[in-house]
Amino acid sequence: MTTATTGSTGTTTAAASGTWTLGDLRINRIGFGTMRLPQEGAAFDPDAAPRDPDRAIGVLRRAVELGVNHLDTAAFYFSRLRSANELINRALRPYPEDLVITTKVGPGRGPSGEWLPHAAPEQLRGQVEENLRQLGRDHLDVVNLRIVGADPIAERFAALADLQRAGLIRHLGLSNIHPHHLAEALAVAPVVCVQNMYGLGVRPECDTFVRTCGEQGIAFVPFYSIAGPGRTAGTDGSAAAEELAAVARAHGASTAQIRLAWTLHRGPHMLAIPGTGDPDHLAANVAAGALRLSGEELALLDGLHRRAG
Length: 309
Fold this sequence. Notes:
Blueprint: E1 19-22, E2 25-28, E3 32-33, H1 53-65, E4 70-72, H2 84-92, E5 100-105, E6 108-109, E7 115-116, H3 124-135, E8 140-146, H4 154-165, E9 169-175, H5 179-186, E10 193-195, H6 207-215, E11 219-220, H7 242-251, H8 255-264, H9 279-287, H10 295-308
Parallel strand pairs: 3-4, 4-5, 5-8, 8-9, 9-10, 10-11
Antiparallel strand pairs: 1-2, 6-7
């Protein structure tokens, strides 16, 4: 990882987290997840109040000012008034040359927010084109096939590989997968990233898979790395274990920042995509990329991680 980097105002930027290359796209390891941008409160709640669009647009623009050049989104991130993709479009077009937008296909939601059956291979082109339309782009940088369940994925991944050869997609990834899915996909086309639920104390049984991705040069992009088991509802307070709180105090940081820093310390291939609708939380998340944990602190936190499992 690189040494801490600050902008002209002295604020820590995403460059402090170091960089990784998704295929041929170089990004800072601290990115931004847009799941919560369209609404207040829990994501995917059909009754959630839509977020003020000017505030959401302001957060996106501030993220780019802070050096964030990796956004995670999906066409199924929407409230009853607006979608994350459309907010990105309004906030950032014309897009910065170094901005990488990663999106997901597979699941879908109806107009009222209800989840639809997973897309069949022949439906994936429509989902890709919907992301293109909403984002106002002629191709997508990275498309993750999001999986629901353990069924084979080769046919669906092959459909995306066809769209990649057609020029609609630059790179392919996977989301919410089981380890066997990665081998199945790699037999079809290269995979640049895996996006799975993971974090300090969350799914320690996946540690081996995290290392496997790194050994193969594949980015691992954890979601809910701050919220943990609380998922879309946010942290449930269990993160306030004394060991974690003590490390946070030693760095003058929050426990959320220590969680992000621990994630990045799991390997140079680990990325982070914390999301927020609050500009102060955004700056704190980006600043977490500059935290350097000692060997003793990492050993303590690794033990906490294992015990939680």
